[in-house]
Design a protein that fits this description.
By secondary structure, the protein is α/β, with parallel strands linked by helices. The protein has a single domain, classed as Alpha-Beta Barrel (TIM Barrel). The N and C termini lie close together (about 5 Å).
């Protein structure tokens, strides 16, 4: 089994960004959605990115932003990938692409069609499956997702309610390309904890070793 990639979302400070890198995270998420407690202004995010070591990817998260709003953010803080975490239309996703992660909220009645639909969009590099609109720590039926995961022609990123305690079970159930954690490594909304990040990354590596 290939190793599971790790994304830590909602990073707001350089020290936490460095902690993510040192723990072995593959990517950090920068939330550009102002209502979120994890929001970081694009100008501040750009300064944070400058502190990262090589080979740590950056992902800019927006929610229902217009193409103009998305482009304006990218001009100030260009990231390696864009994560569209709302109910964006196909046209918006295509206009914001390429290198897009499209987030989908898990619904057992629609998830198979959602995977097929977004897999067909050339600009979508990966599909992120969440249990909520994002950042609420709500998990979902991993076994149900596993049953239809073959419907996706794109890599799957598993999010929603992941913690150091359950991420191993989630990996074994779904076999995702990557896992995405936010509230599961926080002491309060928006307050990331370096020790929890390290324990989470260790749990992912342990799950990979066990599954292998």
């Amino acid at each position: 089994m290939p190793r599971t990639r790790i994304k830590i979302c909602g990073v707001r400070t350089p020290d936490i960004a460095i902690a993510c890198a040192e723990a072995g995270a593959d990517a950090i998420g920068l939330v550009f959605h102002e209502p979120s407690p994890r929001y970081i202004p694009p100008e501040q995010a750009w300064r944070l990115i400058a502190e990262l070591p090589p080979f740590v990817a950056t992902v800019g998260l927006t929610v229902n932003a217009s193409v103009d709003q998305y482009t304006a953010i990218e001009e100030v803080c260009p990231t390696d990938y864009g994560q569209l975490h709302g109910e964006e239309t196909e046209k918006v996703v295509q206009s914001c692409g390429p290198r897009i992660f499209k987030a989908v909220r898990f619904n057992p009645d629609t998830i198979e069609n959602d995977l097929k639909y977004w897999s067909a969009i050339e600009e979508v590099d990966a599909i992120l499956i969440d249990g909520s609109p994002g950042g609420r720590g709500e998990s979902f039926d991993w076994a149900a997702l596993a049953q239809v995961r073959a419907a996706s022609a794109r890599p799957l990123i598993l999010a929603g309610g992941l913690t150091p305690d359950n991420v191993g079970e989630a990996i074994r159930a779904v076999r995702p390309y990557a896992v995405d954690v936010s509230s599961g490594v926080e002491t309060a909304p928006g307050e990331k904890d370096a020790d929890l990040i390290r324990v989470f990354c260790d749990a992912v590596r342990a799950a990979d070793a066990f599954s292998g």
